[in-house]
Amino acid sequence: MELFPEDLTNTFEVKDHFNFGGYGIIYRAIKRSNGQMYAIKAVARNSTGSTWKDIGAELQVLSWANPYKLRLDSFFVKGETFYMVIDYCRNGDLLKAIVDKISADEMFEEDEIWKYFIQICFGLESLHYNGFTHRDLHPQNILLDENKDIKIADFGTSRSLQTKTIQGVASYQSPRTHSGDPQAKESDVWAVGCILYYLCNLEHPFGDNVNKIKNAPHRPIRSEYSNELRYFVDWCLKKRRIERPKIVDILTHEFIVNKTLSLGITIPQASAMNAAICQIQLEKERERNEQLEKELSKYRKENIVQKNEIEWLRAEIARLSSIINGNKKSEKGLKDSNEDLLNSQTIKINQDLIKNNETEKAQSIQELREKRSEILNRPNDPELEQDFRRTCSKFSSDVSVDQQAYQDYTNAYRQKTSLYTIRDDDNNEN
């Protein structure tokens, strides 16, 4: 490998460099024109496992616009070495972040795990959409920029789906890959599942044990995490490739869509999630319209009922008004009729009173006449005299007594008194 070309030092200020993968060098350099730090990947044509075809594939992938993979700034060739100027990620790789958590005896926050998971899926989406697979996805190939956003790196092993060769770290290869089958999109999903599990439990689900990878179930993730997170780990680590989701299945899942929006994760313009969001919004709009239609239908029915009630009330008011008007017209006649009835009843009552009076008078007269006879027959009876006085007093206070009867009793009293007087005189003379 040649040293960094001297003629490029006018463009870049090299800070340091380190080897990677056994077949290249990464230079950390500042671009003099803008003062930004870049990583310059230098790969020799004769490096182990590296050909111009491999470099061409990586260059093609880096040229696609996607915020969650490394971006190619520029490239140039010097002799047998190819130089790619790409984004520099200040926060290292995901493996370093995992090791830091283990060292601090801490766990990742669940929302942080969701963020990494979703951004990794966004980064793979553009590869799969263009017919490529990464084939070597693991925490060291996932970088973190200054905002700790994901940047997928090392596309040197990326190949089209027609490629039959097998590449990558064994512990992140799927069961079918270990059985000799070509790597497919679902193989990248398996690697994503391993990374997701690693973030949750801070350990690999199977390690390097191929038999466990092919046959053993993984242990559940920590109970501190949600059932939704457990669901996606289990889904991505299905042993049978056909049971695993595609990246687009994950990104268009309603839960992932809502989680992406709630966390404020930037959605790439070309992502299928945008269509899913539109579909979800249309579905919600349809549900709202259905609900509004139900409410409108209910309102219409209530309006019809109210209208019928109003019409009934109007008819009832008209009927009552007619009755009131009719009553007013017959009120005078009814009053006259009542007066006539009252007069007739008064006359009858008076007649009854007169009749009763006459009966009482007759009885009183008869009583007095009997008293008169007793007085005349018993002139010297004191008790009879007192009784007579009481009877006369009672009779004289009755204004309705016949005057002739009263006169008769007065005369009888006088005769009685006269008899007493004569007898007294006779007694005196004797």
Automatic annotation (TrEMBL):
EC number assigned by the record: 2.7.11.1
Domain of life: Eukaryota
Protein kinase domain location: 12-256
InterPro entries: Kinase-like_dom_sf (IPR011009), NEK_Ser/Thr_kinase_NIMA (IPR051131), Prot_kinase_dom (IPR000719)
Record's keyword terms, sorted: ATP-binding, Coiled coil, Kinase, Nucleotide-binding, Serine/threonine-protein kinase, Transferase
GO molecular function: ATP binding; protein serine/threonine kinase activity
Coiled coil ranges: 275-309
Pfam family, one: Pkinase
PROSITE patterns linked to this entry: PROTEIN_KINASE_DOM
Catalytic reaction list: L-threonyl-[protein] + ATP = O-phospho-L-threonyl-[protein] + ADP + H(+); L-seryl-[protein] + ATP = O-phospho-L-seryl-[protein] + ADP + H(+)
Matches recorded under SUPFAM superfamilies: Protein kinase-like (PK-like)
EC primary class: transferase
Protein name: non-specific serine/threonine protein kinase
